[in-house]
Each structure stands twice: as structure tokens, then as C-alpha cells.
């Protein structure tokens, strides 16, 4: 089981994977349920569609700049028109821009939309973690805790524990925060993350 020290690393890995392998993403869904002739036609069409979406996504997000609203609008339009993994990645990238501009409601709406656009468990985990952080930033601790329950996979245990502890501490539950951070520190987390969680526990004393 791969363990992630932060969601940014996994976003980069997912983005590279989909950029390199977009043409293969839908193959498994179709095998066994389509006639040979229909499969060949669909495969050719889907390959072209995925390549086009991948190229447009990379072009738009590379040009995105906070001081150029038209570039943000272009990414938003792409995200709304592509109900697939590329649309989800675009929503994730654009939400980051909105967070930096302190437009948290817009960021939340984008992330919630992005969750509906992908079935990739790792990408869903990243989006949910970002969403929980923003909810916590908005003093919505209960909403953040609920969102964290949607993050699946042992590789995310420590990061989930970190955010969960912060949410519980914001509610005045010091023991709950300690328990969450302790669980994260005992997981297969990176040394740096374990040290940070231990420091947080020490600061509670």
C-alpha cells in the first residue's frame, strides 16, 4: 500500500497518469459487452475524445493565472463541460486558485462538482481532503468530519488523522484530537508527518 505524505504529491501523480494513459481509461468498461464492430468504432472515437480532453486540459490549466480572469473562466467552462476525470482535475486546479483568493464558497462548489465527475478512488480522496480543509477553514468542523469519512484507503490514514484532529480540537475535544493524531502517528506515515503529529500531541499537554 502506497502511503502519501500529502495530497499535492498524489495530484501530480494522477495528473501525469491521466495525461499519459487517457486513451486506455474506458477500455475495461466496454470489454465483454460490445460486439467487435461496435467496440472498434467506440474505441477509436473514445481514444480521440480522451486525447482531445487531455490536451485541452493541459493547455488551459498551464495558462491559468489568478490575475487573468479570462483564464479562470476558460478552466471553469472546461470543467462544466467535461463530466470525466479531466473535468475533475480542472475543478481541483481551479478550486486552488479560489482558495488563494479567499473565495472559499466557489472552491467548495467546484470540489463537490469534481467529486461527481470521477470514479478514481485516489482522486476522490484528494478532492475530499481538500474539501475538508476548506470546510474547517470556514469553521464547519462537523461538515469536515463528515467529508473525511468519505476518504478511503489506508494510504491516507495519517493525513485524515491530521485534519480530523484539527476539526475535533476546534470543537473543544482535546482528547478526541489526541486520539486522532495518535492513530495517525502510529500508521505507516512518513517520518516528517509522524513528527508533526507528535508535536501537535505534545502541544496539547
Notes on the structure:
The protein is mainly α and 205 residues long. It has a single domain, classed as Serine Threonine Protein Phosphatase 5, Tetratricopeptide repeat (Alpha Horseshoe). 76% of the residues lie in helices and 0% in strands. The chain is built from 11 helices and no strands. The radius of gyration is 19 Å and the shape is elongated. Keywords: Cell membrane, Chaperone, Membrane, Transmembrane, Transmembrane helix. Belongs to the YfgM family.
CATH H-level name... which superfamily?
A: Tetratricopeptide repeat domain
**Can you tell me the CATH architecture?**
Alpha Horseshoe
Helix percentage range: over 70%
Task: Specify the structural class.
Answer: mainly alpha
Number of helices: 11
Task: Label the overall shape.
Answer: elongated
- Beta content: under 5%
Characterize the biggest β-sheet: none
Poorly predicted regions are: 1-5, 22-45
Output the radius of gyration.
Answer: 19 Å
Quaternary assembly: single chain
Number of strands: 0
The tally of structural domains comes to 1
The CATH topology assignment is: Serine Threonine Protein Phosphatase 5, Tetratricopeptide repeat
**H/E topology pattern:** HHHHHHHHHHH
* CATH C-level: Mainly Alpha
Distance between the termini: 33 Å
Short overview:
The protein is mainly alpha-helical.
Q: Any descriptors?
A:
205 residues, mainly alpha, Serine Threonine Protein Phosphatase 5, Tetratricopeptide repeat, 76% helix, 0% strand, disordered N terminus
